[in-house]
């Protein structure tokens, strides 16, 4: 609600305990999926040499690292710990770099599907052999690591008061929004071109629910990763313009954090287990997880091809 001239409360809760519990639960769910999916990808040569599954591997590792460090970060805030400067910088660097790598990996995944669908001959001849997917994944990690180092470098000489909190994460907000905006434009362009090409080839139509549903699910999952950053930026702008109280901002921010953190746990299903090839190998490697094929329900059946269905992705 709009801010007025009344005195602001002396203490505004930042809900660090809620953030800790949400991060821990999300981390636990993603840890399970990391174990069964990434171990299967590493074990099966056909999967670990395929760009799509290698990128899924990097996406899950990045998300797991981000949520794990987020849990540690918010727990030390809840305990009012005073870590040394190097420990604080290490936590901030891991949080920012892993978040950046998630977005970079999603961008590369969109470009990979764009090349596979719109330029299949060139893609099959140049991008399906060798270790280039792993090299590309390593490159995204290097770029993602450079981003926090460049943001934190100007403040390297400032005095550190021993408090490592979310204020440390707010450095370079404008640069982060620009980075997210560029990646979002690239992702949207890639999926629009895939959609246009699919319609031109006749594989995306009302009869092909699998292809249309895949595009819709990927779009919703991309929104889960991208929207929180824009929403938090808008909340910060509204607070600086004194249109909302800090208490309202913090309450909205923790609700957004909880919802989108838990929603990100669906990523292994959207990008991994909906692929019949991966799900089949998971069932062979972990027979106890064969029930996942039934649990996934309509999402899996909509994506797994039948004799009369052609799936564009």
From TrEMBL:
Gene Ontology CC annotation, any one: membrane
Localization in the cell: Membrane
Residues annotated as domain G-protein coupled receptors family 1 profile: 33-271
InterPro entries named among the record's database cross-references: GPCR1_Superfamily_Member, GPCR_Rhodpsn, GPCR_Rhodpsn_7TM
One Pfam family cited in the UniProt record for this chain: 7tm_1
PROSITE patterns for this protein: G_PROTEIN_RECEP_F1_2
Keywords, comma-separated and alphabetical: Membrane, Transmembrane, Transmembrane helix
TM segment ranges: 20-41, 53-77, 89-111, 132-152, 177-196, 217-239, 251-273
MF annotations from Gene Ontology: G protein-coupled receptor activity; odorant binding; olfactory receptor activity
The protein's name: G-protein coupled receptors family 1 profile domain-containing protein
Source organism of the structure: Champsocephalus gunnari
């Amino acid at each position: 609600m709009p801010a007025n001239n009344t005195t602001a409360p002396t203490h505004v809760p930042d809900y660090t305990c809620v953030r800790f519990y949400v991060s821990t639960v999300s981390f636990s769910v993603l840890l399970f999926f990391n174990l069964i999916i990434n171990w299967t990808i590493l074990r099966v040569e056909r999967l670990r040499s395929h760009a799509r599954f290698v990128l899924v591997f990097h996406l899950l590792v990045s998300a797991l690292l981000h949520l794990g460090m987020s849990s540690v970060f918010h727990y030390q805030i809840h305990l009012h710990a005073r870590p040394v400067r190097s420990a604080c910088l290490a936590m901030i660097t891991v949080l920012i770099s892993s978040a950046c790598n998630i977005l970079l990996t999603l961008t590369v995944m969109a470009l990979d599907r764009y090349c596979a669908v719109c330029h299949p001959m060139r893609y099959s001849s140049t991008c399906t052999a060798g270790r280039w997917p792993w090299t590309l994944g390593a490159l995204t990690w290097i770029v993602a690591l450079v981003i926090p180092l460049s943001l934190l470098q100007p403040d390297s000489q400032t005095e550190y008061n021993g408090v490592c909190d979310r204020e440390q994460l707010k450095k370079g907000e404008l640069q982060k929004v620009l980075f997210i905006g560029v990646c979002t434009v690239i992702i949207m362009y890639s999926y629009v071109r895939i959609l246009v090409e699919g319609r031109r080839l006749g594989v995306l139509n009302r009869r092909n629910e699998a292809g249309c549903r895949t595009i819709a699910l990927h779009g919703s999952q991309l929104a889960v990763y991208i929207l929180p950053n824009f929403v938090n930026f808008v909340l910060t702008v509204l607070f600086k313009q004194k249109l909302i109280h800090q208490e309202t901002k913090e309450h909205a921010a923790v609700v957004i954090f909880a919802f989108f953190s838990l929603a990100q746990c669906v990523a292994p299903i959207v990008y991994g287990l909906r692929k019949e090839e991966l799900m089949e190998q998971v069932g062979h490697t972990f027979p106890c997880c064969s029930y996942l094929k039934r649990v996934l329900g309509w999402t899996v059946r909509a994506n797994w091809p039948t004799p009369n269905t052609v799936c564009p992705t």
